[in-house]
Amino acid sequence: MRLRVRRVGMQQKLGKWSLRFTEAPFILESSSVVGTKEADGPLGGLFDIVGKDDRFGQNTWEKAESSMQRDALTMALGKAHLDASDMDYVFAGDLLGQSMATTFGVENFRIPWFGVYGACSTCGESLSLAAAFVAAWYARHEVAVTSSHFGSAEKQFRFPNQYANQRPVSATWTVTGSAAFIVGSGAGGNEIQTGCDNEWTGGDNADSISKKVQIEGITTGVVVDYGIKDAMNMGAAMAPAACELIVNHLSDFGRKASYYDRIVTGDLGSVGQKILIDLCRQKGVDISKNHEDCGMKMFDATNQNTGSGGSGCACSATVLSAYYLPKLRSGELKRILFVPTGALLSPVSFNEGESVPGIAHGVVLEAVM
Fold first, then answer.
1. Which pLDDT belongs to residue 210?
2. Where are the alpha helices (DSSP H) in the chain?
């Protein structure tokens, strides 16, 4: 099959869905902030900052989410030895109405802000936009930020915590956390820096880093709606969008699934993973050997009683920062297709009986010298 390539500025348009950057931008640094339940999970020792409690010194969950964003952005800048004034743009969003956690989270940094919303796929969307801006030379340094909080998400989308409702096995647990990624060009000797003046807990993140992580390309998803109306089964709602994104990406780039060491979805959980693998097989794509899900990595579902796994904007973002980027930088992984997934519902749409459409965004991350 011959690829139809149309050049657009400094990048190549592949097919209908994708961009492959002629001069690929890099993730220069990142940081992760999580709550207490996340710290008790399998990846607990990898995160940069762990809150003493899930309010992070604030009197509401919503303010706690803004506080996490401030901490994540401040630490990422510190690790990269950059200031807020060095950032041309920030691409950021969250799950709350009008992205209020981000509004109060980024306001004092005085960085020009593009507010984005992709539900739990927001990390992929913000990284895609940041990478495209850098690759097109609209900016040299940008930051992508996102967050979520179990308390604020439950209050907005499901039930008040005081209700103590029973959660089915298909339900996922919204991750309390935030992550920030500094995206920049490879020009001018932008070397990845290690260490930070701040006190941080990350174990593997503190190891010496020998490789850079470049964003080779992106694939943008479309809204996919299979008519799922169960707000306690987000994996089923998002899996079709992840399948379409993966299939479109492989077609645009002319690759097989085996090209990637890992195809990493955001927060499908164990239920959504099974659906995704089956849907991909129906389209002639087998991802069963190299697929992993951030939601399944985040928690010990059995011992922590988190149902199908983790979810929320912070799920894929914090796992990418704390777990996958160090593996790419160490050379343990060479390339991954990062596919955060999102369920596009609101309290209004759900209460009016609408279905839950899904979205996914794909980011190709590759380790280079």
1. 65
2. 36-39, 61-79, 100-106, 122-135, 150-157, 234-253, 269-282, 294-298, 301-304, 313-319, 325-330, 347-351
Distance from C-alpha of 275 to C-alpha of 290, rounded to nearest angstrom:
15
Average pLDDT across each block of 10 residues of the chain; the chain has 369 residues. List them in order: 45 89 95 97 97 92 94 97 97 91 95 95 98 94 96 66 55 92 71 34 45 96 92 88 98 98 96 97 98 97 91 96 98 98 83 89 96
Closest CA to 249 of 185, 335, 313: 335
Cβ atoms within 10 A of the Cβ of 128, count? 26
3-class SS of residue 128: helix
* pLDDT at residue number 193: 35
CA distances from 26 to 41, 182, 349 (A): 29, 8, 38
Q: What is the CA radius of gyration of the chain?
A: 19
Tokens read off for 351: 């209460």
| 146 φ/ψ sector (left φ>0, alpha ψ -120 to 50, else beta) | beta
